[in-house]
Amino acid sequence: MMIKFVRGLLLFTTSCLWTSYSMGQGFLKADGKKIVDESGKEIILRGMGLGGWMLQEGYMYGLSALGQQYRIREKIEASVGAEKAEQFYERWLTTHTTRKDIDALAALGFNSIRLPMHYALYTLPVDKEPIAGSDTWLEKGFALTDSLLKWCSANKIYLILDLHAAPGGQGNDLAISDRDPSKPSLWQSEANQKKTIALWTKLAARYANEPWMGGYDILNETNWGFQDEKDTRGTNEQQNIPLKKLSQEITRAIREVDKRHLIIIEGNGFGNNYKGMLPPWDDNMALSFHKYGNFNTVNTIQHFLDLRDQYNIPLWLGESGENSNTWFREAIKLCEDNGIGWAWWQHKKMNINNPFEIKKPEDYNRLLADWSGKGPRLSKEEAWNILEEWLYNTRLENNIFHADVADAMFRQVQFNTAVPFKKHVLNNGATTIQAVDFDMGPQRVAYFDRDTASYHYTPGVNTAGNRGWTYRNDGVDIKMENNEPYIFHIQDGEWLQYTISVKAGGNYQFAFRTRSDSTGGSLTILDNEKKLTGVVLPVTNPKKWTRTQSTPVRLTKGMHRLKIYADKGGFEWVDFSISEPLKQK
């Protein structure tokens, strides 16, 4: 694995890790159960979704109570006026995702990009058309897509178009498609369906001859009860007649102008309910499914493997993520072991479980308190300053890069080993290591925690992964206090590994900064799996960090893998220092 620094970001160049089928040449197409390029070489799509760019969902920015993008925009307009709100969204589209983002994702090892499109960037809503039944085309969306395709082509990675927000909205999960429930949905309006077909016709005609256009994911995550309106998620639908009909009409329209590109279909129930949808109606088609929060066993995808075998059609995990690194590694390995490509969700938001994190503006919580009515009304100037900082923070060069996420998605899938998260050097007789800077690697290799991922869609399983959701995305519980990260909820038997370079052999002493309000704790320090010494941690003031020293130990010159093992948990831990012991007078 090669590692390089680009504008302060640690980027992993992973091409050396992958077999020859990772990079393609020319148009993608379905070949039986595989996706291949023009030379017939199998392509395993390793993709990233650009969620939040063309379509904001409230949860991405701590705005779950608002949900849809149009409601977020209403709040912005109420704070700064319609003109400034328009300026905000214009700048959002030009700063959130740029050539730098695509270059960075390609450098990490992604060979494809999934673009969640909002139809309203390409055409007017039905109720705003000057002539009923007409289609007014907007250059903005097409120009953005042209630029994105150009950036993908320059990196020799594929772009897959995903209609995430269809005219009227295609589901009852309103934020996904920016749906206004007071207006007819996609399924309640023939005009919305005709506009959807027209949009795909326009897109296919524009990109028909583009080899780095990977395919068309024609309708994202329908969640609708056609037979039973109480089935709001569409998971119990038995026939899916309207969804199949529209999908076939879109396919026919695309094929009138584009014979070559791969068409990707999604079922009801957030992409997974294919009852009544098959067999396929086109010979260049792939079947997408989405996977979140359940166990990563073959049994959880067996239904889709059966559909692949029955209908001789490729599979693609079109959307997944929103979990811990342990879950990411498991899910990606499950897919690749079964010859399935994938696209992760998403490349940046205000959270740690993506390669890039958008930092919250300094006074962001004040703005949210204003919008929720739980805080004082901000002046237009105050609100605009916060919004401008938000725009500034969306730029890649201002994002926080999470190397641990990238490592879990690529290197850890191939190698069951650990590498340093940060460079630790014992030089000049002393060093201090933050507890949170343990090695990167899989569970039981770089660390052991009793709860490493969220399996929230599995009945009776209530795991959480990282309970603090800060600093890094591994299954270790991390909180922040006064801008200093620390580990909490340490349980018996949990451990963390640190790779350290000792420049000069000698006698050294460890000192641990911890606190515990009830039981104290105890540690064992191991060096390359051999016990060095133990440390008993005292009961302390729960708000005061206390330093506890070990007995002196011998460390030789060279690389050491230090394992800090919690014999008895129940304490919180900030850091540990290694230094030469004080000489007795």
TrEMBL record:
<dbReference type="InterPro" id="IPR005084">
    <property type="entry name" value="CBM6"/>
</dbReference>
<dbReference type="Pfam" id="PF00150">
    <property type="entry name" value="Cellulase"/>
</dbReference>
<protein>
    <submittedName>
        <fullName>Cellulase family glycosylhydrolase</fullName>
    </submittedName>
</protein>
<dbReference type="Pfam" id="PF03422">
    <property type="entry name" value="CBM_6"/>
</dbReference>
<dbReference type="InterPro" id="IPR050386">
    <property type="entry name" value="Glycosyl_hydrolase_5"/>
</dbReference>
<dbReference type="InterPro" id="IPR001547">
    <property type="entry name" value="Glyco_hydro_5"/>
</dbReference>
<feature type="domain" description="Glycoside hydrolase family 5">
    <location>
        <begin position="88"/>
        <end position="348"/>
    </location>
</feature>
<comment type="similarity">
    <text>Belongs to the glycosyl hydrolase 5 (cellulase A) family.</text>
</comment>
<dbReference type="InterPro" id="IPR008979">
    <property type="entry name" value="Galactose-bd-like_sf"/>
</dbReference>
<feature type="domain" description="CBM6">
    <location>
        <begin position="474"/>
        <end position="575"/>
    </location>
</feature>
<keyword id="KW-0326">Glycosidase</keyword>
<dbReference type="InterPro" id="IPR017853">
    <property type="entry name" value="GH"/>
</dbReference>
<keyword id="KW-0378">Hydrolase</keyword>
